[in-house]
Design a protein that fits this description.
Elements (H helix, E strand, L loop, with lengths): L9 E6 L4 E8 L5 E6 L9 H12 L3 E5 L8 E5 L5 E4 L9 H14 L4 E7 L1 H13 L4 E7 L4 H9 L2 H14 L8 H7 L5 H8 L4 H5 L16 E6 L9 H11 L5 E6 L10 H12 L4
Parallel strand pairs: 3-4, 3-7, 7-8, 8-9, 9-10
Antiparallel strand pairs: 1-2, 2-4, 2-5, 5-6
Helix pairs in contact: 1-10, 2-3, 5-7
Length: 293
């Protein structure tokens, strides 16, 4: 992608269902049908590759709504709707299960503007969030799920930390047991330079927790097996977060999925964020959602 890059759209302030104020960017097409983008860890609504792909959607009449979840960036301040109280979230402090509040708030906002259909599109950890939302909320306004690089955080961190993984989990559990789950996990910070609370780390590092189970490819993908919405998956052949051949992930997804419309796309040369492959990815997305009633 060449810079500078400019995008036409509306900057939007809206609230999650618990009245937390957040930000989004709406690129509107002619149809009242939108793709809602849910970013991954440390991300934000202003992901240039996604906004570039949004131009493809708009050209075909669809809209793109990209918004900040409360897990945006690493540490981020939010206000409530009245603006009289601040909250500290961001990836380091968010509670995974609360992601449904922001996603539903985004869909409610679009509905207030006359949108009848939405497609949820997640990237990386955003994939876990849209899958969890679809399973937990059963929102009839959602017509399909689009998963961009649905990898799993546990093996990524296991490879990163090595023998220290078990120690990091043990320390985090001990912190939670003593009421310090919301405190920074300083062992991880000293080891990696990254900020995590103990509870946020355990959310994806403890196999018993919901977030860690959603795309546990060593398991049965039990939540995916309960989703019947049309689903489209994208994997890049150069995704550094995958530890098995893509054929392995395809097989696991096909075994779990019970719906009637499944499409698994393999993007040759695509990295975790599909840099330089946005046109190819979004051409396939347009083709996929155009066939959904």
């Amino acid at each position: 992608m060449k810079y500078p890059k400019e995008f036409d759209g509306k900057l939007v302030f809206f609230t999650a269902t618990d009245r937390l104020k957040t930000t989004g960017f709406l690129m509107e097409g002619d149809k009242k049908e939108a793709v809602v983008f849910v970013h991954g860890m440390g991300g934000s609504f202003a992901k240039d590759g996604i906004l570039a792909g949004g131009q493809k959607l708009v050209a075909q009449g669809y809209s793109l709504f990209s918004f900040n979840t409360r897990g945006a960036e690493i540490v981020k301040s939010f206000k409530n709707a009245r603006g009289d109280r601040y909250y500290t979230f961001g990836t380091a402090f968010e509670k995974f299960e609360d992601s449904t509040k922001g996603i539903k708030g985004a869909i409610n906002y679009l509905e207030s503007r006359g949108y009848k259909k939405v497609h949820l599109m997640g990237h990386s950890t955003g994939c876990q969030k849209i899958l969890y939302y679809a399973w937990k909320r059963r929102d009839m306004r959602v017509r399909s799920l689009i998963f961009l690089s649905p990898s799993e955080d546990y093996p990524i961190w296991k490879a990163y930390l090595g023998e220290d993984m078990d120690k990091a989990i043990e320390i985090a559990r001990n912190m939670e047991e003593h009421g310090y789950g919301k405190n920074i996990h300083y062992f991880l910070y000293r080891r990696t330079g990254e900020l995590w609370t103990a509870s946020r780390f355990l959310s994806f590092a403890d196999r018993k927790r919901m977030e860690a189970r959603l795309f546990n490819y060593q398991g049965e993908l039990s939540v995916l097996s309960k989703i019947y919405l049309p689903a489209q998956f994208f994997f890049g052949t150069k995704d550094e977060t995958l530890f098995e051949d893509i054929a392995y992930y395809k097989k696991k997804i096909k075994q779990a999925y019970r719906g009637k419309k499944l499409k698994i796309e393999v993007i040759k040369g695509g990295d975790h964020s599909f840099h330089g492959k946005e046109d190819e990815v979004f051409d396939k997305i347009v083709k996929f959602i155009s066939k959904i009633k």
